[in-house]
Amino acid sequence: MSSLSRRELLTTTALALLMPVAAVHGATIKGALPFVPGENNALTPVEPGPWRYFTNDEGTAIEALVDRLIPPDPQTPGGKDAGCAVFIDRQLAGPYGRFEGLYMSGPF
User: Fold this and answer.
1) Domain map (residue ranges) of the chain
2) What percent of the chain has pLDDT over 70?
């Protein structure tokens, strides 16, 4: 591997600094936002309820696991109270758990 000489380093640095920088055009927002917050990407509220992916025994085990990973203390809730088990259940029951975003038909 050839080493970079001082002359080459200075030349490439000077050329890089002399290159014109692409112009960036940005809008200035004054007065109010140009959109209504939460209008397009409104979240659907998730209510804890019956398990959608796990059985009752599996759901109880997952709640115990997330409480072990994120233990509750006097200032913050634990994993179960924060809804981690419900989040995992809903993810596995939804498109993520069905591999809908995974492209499996390529010429591998």
Assistant:
1) 56-93
2) 79
